Amino acid sequence: MFHVHRGRRLAVTATAGLLAPLVLATTSVAGTSVPADAGPAANPSGYDWSDVDLSDVTLEVGQILPLTGGAASYADLFRNGSDLAAAQIAAAGGPTITFNRVDNASGTPEAAISAARQLVDDGTPIAQTSFPEASIAIVPIIDDAGLLTFNPAGATPEQLGAGEYLWMGGPDGQAPLRFMADYVHETSPEATTAAIIAWNTATGIAAGEEITARWEELGGSVDATELVDIGSSNVGPQIARALAGEPDVVFLVLFGPDNANVITALRDRGFEGTIMGSEFDPQFEAITGDADEGYVAITYALDPELDHPFNRLFVDGFRETYGTDPEPFASMFYENTWLIADLVARAVRAGADPNDREALYDAFIADPATPTSIIGTPYVWDTETHGYQRPFLVSVVEGHVAVPVGVIADGELQVGRTLADLAGA
pTM for the full model? Predict the structure, then answer.
């Protein structure tokens, strides 16, 4: 059914800690090596701190994470990326970074508000947060305190421009999902009818509406849209209603084990059409068995084999430290932690206190950009929306491995292109 562009295999993951939680050590980070002649002057990250002495600088970064609740294993992904970055930053002559981690109870607004207040009371100078509803809830607190806060786990439309001090440390994760319709239309033009199964959240509902609008624009019809509560143990009724109209394709806006469970349930019910969703993790095999064969996913861009210096520093360090390939959420906390370290250097250059909230905010606003990234291209923030653009991958699962078949970049689906093509590698 798919026109798959064959090539090297690439493990593309998005929630490695959710399916069979990876309780990975975060107290001892081994993958800290940088070239012997790099030191503070230069390192594979692209940041140059040769003109400042950061050896005696310590910065505490607040992290509002899902330490409890149904999505608690996401916290492992976020911590693994930021812990690795902190160790490598110190090895490269950067500041010592520590973390003050507080709980948002898997994105609960009330818990996030309490967590943000704790960071403010603790005097934390800069922060990272997670989950859309929780991030929006803390805006009045961080704006009042002048606490620059990034959400590295990705943006949703309602977060963009929500507050002066809330910035997206990752791209808009909802916007590319409408390209599910484009991909199926291009690769399986005979498919005309669809069903959608999405999380019963604001993001899930909105993404489902965008997919529906695009599919209908392309001439198809959506005969059923079913919502699933996070962590629901009984999806049978939704599966039955979704398949009642005999769709050619089922689009999923689900994450973690919910995504794997629905893929399995669809195949168990005899559905043989296209299943395309919003993430993939090779640990799906523990739940899906062979049901994930042919599954198509849109994921945040990460290529463990991309031959770019910053990517190699990240991937090789992650493999050395945790014994597995990294996944995109870890990569975004990793990159954002490097950026925060650079804000320290900028403040020191300006003669300011690197632990002062205003100094760090001013350092970022003066140049809201990175010199490069693990995918080989710089990130530049939009000062109106507080987000930035980053490519996404489209992959087809073959033998429990996600094989890239295209990218979403510059606002369009580009079947057959790779991250290496975009980076000029």
Answer: 0.81
